[in-house]
Write a structure and sequence with these properties.
The protein is of the alpha/beta class. 25% of the residues lie in helices and 28% in strands. The chain has 7 helices and 19 strands. The strands form 5 sheets. Strands 1, 2, 5, 6, 7, 8 and 19 form a 7-stranded mixed sheet that branches. A 5-stranded parallel sheet has the order 10-17-11-12-13. Strands 14-15-16 form a 3-stranded antiparallel sheet. Bound molecules: flavin-adenine dinucleotide.
């Protein structure tokens, strides 16, 4: 039997840096926010060990520790943090309706979407093994490239982001080998030329990852296969970067919100506003460019301020 409908002034979906920052601002502004954590409490950062680029932590901090601190800060000001997954929404009326776990119905004046995005991986068992061990597999060059300074790394991907990440790594690493599945890049010419013209990037076309190899703890190399000749070769590497795209967690909103071709929510420029009044977006769910904890937190702040102003305008 479904529970009684609850009325909420400000509902925040997601418990990453965007959601918790929105919660800190909303609770301090007396908006009594309720935050649903989803199936990944703490968000993407809970899958990484060292966060060294978030301001305020001169010695770095682990991702899980940082997210516990953000949660405590949000709770300190009264955010109601709950377990639960938003399974569907109805943004067709003035009051926004959401359902939690296909059961509980909530009616809200404002909604802040902070559902993030998930990096895509190849899905090879060896890749997943070293990803889970934190032993040298990463989907974020800007986040983790620094740990591979003066080392040899491999990057997989052929689009603009892959080229940008390969170029970023080339400034830190002694050698970057780029594995490209087809005989051409998917990236724009200008981005492709940038990697082609970088002396310490080697591009291997018609090449796919066969296996990420390691010593049981950390990555030591990559086996790759030429998909024209089926020849398998091996190169040494301490880092394996996957740059084959991200999937924003926005499926449940697509009936009501404007999304771009890849599913990112489109916000009104310079704001967190969506095409629906009272529905705001923050963090990676609307950001295919920066995808950093600090930018997610910044837009979480914007969403809470925009929501607060919207509520004031209703009064
Ligand atoms: C391995 C790795 C290492 C990284 N390292 C760094 C780093 O060192 N520095 C840095 O700045 N950035 C780093 N990043 C990027 C950073 O983690 C993200 O940019 C940031 O977490 C985005 O924050 P967010 O709040 O938008 O979303 P996320 O952190 O993705 O959180 C999304 C939240 O939404 C919830 N959710 C999703 N759908 C629903 C739903 N339907 N109902 C309820 N809840 C839902 C999830 O459970 C989750 O809590 C790293 C990312 C990865 C994957």
């Amino acid at each position: 039997m479904s529970e009684k409908i609850e009325f909420v002034k400000c509902l925040i979906i997601g418990s990453g840096p965007a959601g918790y920052t929105a919660a800190i601002y909303a609770s301090r502004a007396n908006m009594s926010p309720v935050l649903y954590q989803g199936t990944q409490p703490g968000g993407q950062l809970t899958t990484t060990n060292d966060v060294e680029n978030f301001p305020g932590y001169p010695d770095g901090i682990t991702g899980p520790e940082m997210m516990i601190e953000l949660q405590s800060q949000a709770k300190r000001f009264g955010t109601d943090v709950r377990d639960g997954w938003v399974t569907s929404v109805d943004f067709s009326g003035k009051i926004h309706k959401l359902w939690i776990n296909n059961n509980k119905e909530i009616h809200c004046e404002t909604v802040i979407i902070s559902t993030g995005a998930s990096a895509k991986y190849l899905g090879l068992p060896s890749e997943q093994k070293y990803l889970e061990l934190g032993g040298g597999v990463s989907a974020c060059a800007v986040c983790d490239g620094f740990f591979y300074k003066n080392q040899e790394v491999v990057i997989v991907g052929a689009g603009d982001s892959a080229c940008e990440e390969a170029h970023y790594l080339s400034k830190l690493c002694s050698k970057v080998t780029m594995l490209v599945r087809r005989d051409v890049f998917r990236a724009s010419k200008i981005m492709a030329n940038r990697v082609i013209n970088t002396s310490n990037i080697e591009i291997l076309f018609n090449t796919e990852t066969h296996e990420v190899i390691g010593d049981g703890q950390v990555v030591t190399g990559v086996k790759f296969i030429n998909n024209l000749t089926n020849k398998i070769s091996e190169i040494p590497a301490t880092g394996f970067f996957v740059a084959i795209g991200h999937k924003p967690n926005t499926e449940i909103f697509k009936e009501f919100l404007d999304l771009d071709d890849t599913g990112y929510i489109i916000n009104k420029p310079g704001t967190s506003k969506t095409n629906i009044d009272g529905v705001f977006v923050s963090g990676d769910a609307a950001d295919h460019v920066y995808r950093q904890a600090v930018t997610a937190a910044g837009t979480g702040c914007m969403a809470a301020l925009d929501a607060e102003r919207y509520l004031a305008s209703l009064e």
